[in-house]
Amino acid sequence: MGKTEDKRFQIAWLSVILMLGIAVLVGYLGTGLLAAAGVFLLGTGLIMIALSFAVGKREPVITGGGALFAVIGAIFILLYSGADMLLVLGGALIGIALAAIVYVAAKK
């Protein structure tokens, strides 16, 4: 495994830990388990897609896995959450912002 893949792996695990923290906070604020899981999956999927395009060569498996996570997360958020949509939207926007930060930081 080269330096590029090692960098992508490290950023991915740090992003997963960060999205887990955000999902715990969203769940703690009363949104429910499925809404928190949706925020986690949506954010993690978007970060995986950003890493696939920004770091190293483009991997279709990583991009496809990220897209699958994002779609499942969006379904959880839209269909199964009886929570305040502004709170869930805030968690999803944090995930999108983290994906953009990862993309910009890794591109340099």
The level of helicity is over 70%
Mass-distribution shape: elongated
Radius of gyration based on Cα positions: 14 Å
Strand content: under 5%
Count the beta strands.
0
Mean pLDDT metric: 78
Structural class: mainly alpha
Q: What series of H and E elements makes up the topology?
A: HHHH
* Main sheet specs: none
Oligomer: single chain
C-alpha termini separation = 21 Å
**Total of helices:** 4
Outline the low-pLDDT stretches.
Answer: none
Write up this protein.
The chain has 108 residues and is mainly alpha-helical. Helix content is 88%, strand content 0%. It contains four helices and no strands. The chain has helices spanning 3-31, 33-54, 60-80, 85-107. α1 (3-31) runs antiparallel to α2, α1 (3-31) packs antiparallel against α4 and α2 (33-54) runs parallel beside α4 (85-107). The longest helix has 29 residues, at 3-31. The radius of gyration is 14 Å and the shape is elongated. The chain crosses the membrane at residues 12-29, 35-54, 61-80, 86-106.
